# Entry
Amino acid sequence: MSGNARSLSEMRLGRRVAALVLIWATCAPAGGAANEVASVFYRDIQPVLVKACIVCHGPSKQESGYRIDLFDVLVRGGDSGVHAVVPGNPAASHLWQRITSSDPDQRMPPQGTGLDPADKERVRAWIAAGAALPPRGQERNPRSDHWAFNPVDKPSVPRVSAPWGRRNPVDAFIDRHLQATGLARSVEASRTQLMRRVYLVALGVPPEPAQVAAFLDDHSPDAYERMIDAVLASTHYGERWAQHWLDCVRYAETTGYEVNGANGKIYPYRDYLINALNEDRPYSRMVVEQLAGDQFGIDAATGFLVAGPHDTNRSPDPRLTAIQYQDGLDEMIKSTSAVFLGITLGCARCHDHKYDPFTQRDYYAMQAVFAGTSYGSRRQQGVENDRMAAAARKLKPRLVALRKRLKMLRARHGLQPPIDFHSYEETFAPVLTDAVQLRIRAANDQGVIELDDVEVWSVAGAAGETANVAHRDRGARATSSPTAKANQGKTAELLLDGTRQLFLFFRSVDKEDVWIQIFFDRPYRVDRMVIKPRGVHVPVDYRIDVAVGDDGWREVVDSRVRMLHPQDTRPAKAVQLNGLDRQATRTIVAANAEMRAVEAEYNRLGAGPQIFAGSFAPARETFLMVRGDPLGKGPVIAPAGPALFGAAAIAPDASESERRLSLAHLIASPDNPLTARVLVNRVWQYVFGTGIVDTPSDFGINGGRPSHPELLDWLATRLIDQKWSIKQLQRRVLSSATFRQASLSRREAEQVDADCRLLWRFPPRRLSAEAIRDSLLLVSGQMNRRMGGPSFSFFDKTTNIFQKKQPRVKFGPDGWRRMIYGAKVRLEYVGVFGVFDCPDASQMTPKRTVSTSAGQALSLLNSPFVTRQAEFLADLARRKEAAVQGQVEVAARRALGRPLRAGEMSVLVEVAEQQGLVHVCRILLNLNEFVFIQ
Amino acid sequence: MAIRDHMLCRRNFLAHTGSGLGAIALTHLLQSGADCGEGSVAFDPTDPFAPRQGHYRGGAENVIVVFCAGALSQVDFWEHKPELVRFHGKPLPGNERLISFQGENGALQQPLWKFRRRGACGKMISDIVPHLGGCVDDICFLHSVYTKSSTHGPGENLMSTGFNREGYPGMGSWVSYALGTDNQDLPAFVAIEDPRGTPQSGPNNWTNGFLPAAFQGSAFSTTRPVEHLQPPPGISAEANRKVLHALNRLNEGHRQNFQGDSDLAARISSYELAARMQLSVPEVMRVQSEPAHIKKLYGADSKNRVKADFASNCILARRLVERGTRFVQLFNGAYASGGRLNWDTHNSMPELVPGHAEVLDQPVAGLLKDLKQRGLLEKTLVVCCTEFGRMPMFQLGNTGRDHNPEGFTVWFAGGGVRSGMSYGATDAFGYKAEEKPLSIHDVHATMLHLVGIDHERLTYYHNGLQRRLTDVHGRVVHDVIA
# Structure
């Protein structure tokens, strides 16, 4: 390794020391001296100690006898006998010594690289200033008194001066923090840049040249506001913002895990979100619908519950099956708690939450809420369902008549009833024998034969009770014509295990003249055989023989005395029924086929339209699983929301749907301290790149602290007051002067707040994968704006479900729809655009990582997809202008939304003349300016 | 799939930021360092692969993981069980009708190939791997590993990422996040897929999970080129150079207005790096340029096409670590296919396994020998693993073994490992880890320790927790460290 390599254990750089200490120090609420002391401690010190120490030095564990939640112990110290805190003297304080120790064995906390420098500085300052603590008896529970679990405040708008003018109250909250650190907002960005920013943020695509021209021509004072209104009214708005929500819920169209097959029709959930956002459905309503939409005829919304990965691989292994059941519900608990509430309840599966006031009981109480929810396709209520149900009712008489006709035909020819495809019995006159033989001439579908089990029963009598003598435990043996070798062998021995086992059954190689012989341990008097087919590949033309003496086999049963099974799909020429001529056989086969077709249609109509969404059945009993062990059943747990939110709102005997509805209302309540805050923060994050809380799905103690707590609460309050309208919230944020400021960097501000958490400018950022692809298509003029419906595929079809998918290279108009309409496949990265930090939906991704890589450069530069779009853009420009310079101008205006400067123009014209216009377009689509929101 | 992870080095970054600008950008970095880090590693977001030192000095510098996808049978290959021969044909005592993944098991089945003593250490090893048998003095066998899942996808996830669920960073991602890499013109973490196809969990084996995408493994092999590395057909190298030049000019002009924004500079540099990779990647892929005796050592000259291709992948792995790539995950075996394309032999083991063993044996033995003769083995940790083991019984009515998460073998070689030793054991029949059992987390903790990383101190914040490769578990097995 190179000599100047930096050490891994190097402390994190002091990035926030300057800014955030100041932020928090300047925002102390007014109050008396004692209040002041309490608030400094609670605001600056306790959260730091709780986050770093409480797992080992708190209510549940007191390593070395030390705990930070009781003030006297916090100061006095633990078993070491050394004072932990010596007021006024950090150097003499054991607490300070331990958190600053350079010895990794001494340094606290022991994991990671220690406390953040800013946090250290807070602790030091507090001790140095006398380590003031709130008065005795006023200790707050550091867990449940965490800011995010307290009711939303209704802060008043701060009164501060506004050097650059103010557009709405949002700016006052921002200015207050900026001014406290000696910073100021930037000037307003140019109108061209602003419009592009609004489009990219709100719609995920740039404006078209005509839209830009119209906006620049509009000189009315409210031009900007009307532009915002038009943007929020665009259907592209829902497409852009639904993608953010889908990230949070890790929506995909495949199951994940080993099989990773298609989920079924899950896209109605995606379309529900797009429509709900476009209609500005109240957020509280969207919460309820996603958890219990089936109660209001909005089944698609419950796709939320089953959007996560789930294991469809079935096994007889009881432990594996139990893990799969628990994991399936775990995904629902994790997403419900994280997405709506910003809490990490999933951490309490095996033990109480290490940081937040959530117990293992809370976890399983929520499991009880979902204990009737499963992954699968279900009927979608609505107009289509009603139409299909009516059609089914109409078809019913015809089906009844066809069945009656078959019954009549059977009676006319004196045939026995058809077999049952899952289990049936053939009886014969009692016979003493030591072996039986099944000779199979055909399966119902003329394929290979499958059977789960065969029993042969002895006659009760002097020898004893009746018994299945064709069982391996009685010493029976079986042999057969060749069996399938693939995977599990599927030999005749498996017919004698007395059980149906998922993978252990008999499967022949041949499709006809299959035989199975079963030898008993000794002769028995037998009179019946029980045959257990598997519902498919069922033997329908067979004989049963018994062994008699040395003469060989004697036939005792011939299936041709039975009526044709409704699912017997053999053509008439392959069917033989005893005593029937060809004509009669053909009549029965035809009648059967007609009945089958009508029945299939009847069943299809009766099932209604099927979508993949929450499927519900009566809730299973829920147990607390000891240490999270899927087989470690503890006490029975009743359904409830987290105890933190007050008394259980769910009756212990509530029905399955009542459970979900109650939880939904608990979450969607204006009194819930988290729901509105979490949503406001998500919107803020997707506008500015970073949330007011930078851990958007974790508002707990281990999460980030809000940079602007009053603003968060003010916006949350406004959201609730304005009927949970997300568009109103968007309008407020997008209209603010904070949003409208320039994005240019300023050195003096960089030095104080490099992360731009205080928003002294609009922080530029790279576009997401979806926005890059969508923008390419829009600029090239090829975007297909069709909304909703089945998704297009990013991958070529595979022949084997286990085979990994290959990225599709060539797309047509269907694949030129917005990227949200491409089927998300778990465990795979989308070709070309996957490299732009596009998640594969395995995990909830409330905040995408942003990285820059050579792979991204290669994709945009060399992929056939981008090259083709560049060609389209070049064609478009050539159609509009004859001269090269004009063509370059057209292409640039489409890509960048602005005219080129002279220097730029000359560079590009040279490329156009020497290499061709398509290369100019490739350059435009690779520019930083094209892929950044600025 | 494209190389996704190659980012920028400071050298280029500064080269591109004319006079004075570099200094500004650097100030920014020193104050920020934030967008790249919610974890324990301090790194420069515009230079994520700068070599970094681990928590401990010494140990291995590179890692090659040979992943036998589909679950390789420990009792037929690595762990000698005399009792299994003695009890052949009898049910497993105490678990007579054990239900496992595919259902009921049949009788105990003795190893399908003979075991014999090999090497100076006298290790008993199966005849099915004669070449690896010749390497036992360089190998440290861990015979007592157990896992938490008996299905391939979750099993592979756990072995590669420490979690049986999806979306957690792979071990190569963690290691390159911690240590960066020594060659800035090649990916830090390369996943080499088997010539027969992608393993069951596919890219989840080399995903960056919630780590920055820079640390995602790049999937390419001798049979699968790097995607989009070269311009599409019909575009000349000359045209492309001109395009890059013009692009750079325009981007530089634009950046003048956004001084201090390192993201823009980083993106400009990424195009430079892409251009360099267009040279460095084809160079490292030029396995055919190796001398004949080297190809012969690995079996790359074999008439067996699959074996020759896998051997070429092994040579590629060596060429990568030789040039400074930090972590290579080399797959032997593809996806579920009834045991045809990978080790998942539920049936017909006597017929299927020799073919798979032939593909594995000589190439991997060749890799060990070649690393050793070049002096690379001492600084390269080689790990041979699989997602779980197989049962000591045949499945009921069959000639294959079912999944066995209860006990199996992983082996280490090189990179500071004690060689010629065996650690731990399964029970008398090869079913359950019994003597000094090792979780996957223990294997990971030990692996990280060997490259100088304390597994408890390598963390990254995600959805509520500082996550680790080893979850909240893991114990370093000091007994296997030289």
In short: The radius of gyration of chain A is 36 Å. Chain A has 29 helices and 17 strands. Residues 383-413 of chain A form the longest helix (31 residues).
